[in-house]
Amino acid sequence: MSKPLRFLWHVGPLLLWMGVIFAMSTELGSGTRTAGVLVKVLQTLFPVWMAQATPEQLFEVHYWVRKGAHFTEYLILALLAYRAFLYGQPWRHWRALGFCGSFSILYAFTDEFHQVFVSSRSPSLRDVGIDALGAMTGFFLLALVYAWRTAREALQTRLMHVATRATD
């Protein structure tokens, strides 16, 4: 694979996702816009509940969906950052793991700073905290998967060693 294609294969999804996060930090992801979309989705999926829902209930659902979106955006960002920093080289695992967490949290700060310049948005340290929690969840999931794979490989190697000794 050529170097530009290899770069796009490993780093492209991360850059694309960063673009999605950036776009959602504009008017496109404003509360009024997402509220309208959420109401349409809820009316389609839960028409009976929507007929009797109070404005306070709708506000609370909207709040938690938005905060869940923050968490999920940055969990995905951490996973894609790990993939980009790993760059197809398994020996880079620990470096990629450390960079993915740091990078994702730094991007959360820059994302909130970007919202200073969008009239319908406002920066929030609470959102940075939720973003960081999502990124760290991705970080810990990656660490758990790596630990599980390492333990499984060590067990398989040990079993192979025992099996070959038994046949000697």
Key attributes of the depicted protein:
168 residues, mainly alpha, 6 helices, 0% strand
Radius of gyration from the alpha-carbon trace, in angstroms? 22 Å
What structural class do helix, strand and pairing data support?
A: mainly alpha
DSSP strand content = under 5%
Question: What's the β-strand tally?
Answer: 0
Major pleated sheet: none
Poorly predicted spans: none
Secondary-structure element pattern, one letter each? HHHHHH
The level of helicity is over 70%
Q: Compute the average pLDDT.
A: 91
Walkthrough of the structure:
With 168 residues, the protein is mainly alpha-helical. The protein has one domain. It contains 6 helices and no strands. The model has no long low-confidence stretch (mean pLDDT 91).
SSE map:
Blueprint: H1 3-24, H2 31-45, H3 47-52, H4 55-86, H5 93-114, H6 125-167
Helix pairs in contact: 1-4, 2-4, 4-5, 4-6, 5-6
Give a nutshell description of this structure.
The protein is mostly helical. The protein has helices spanning 3-24, 31-45, 47-52, 55-86, 93-114, 125-167.
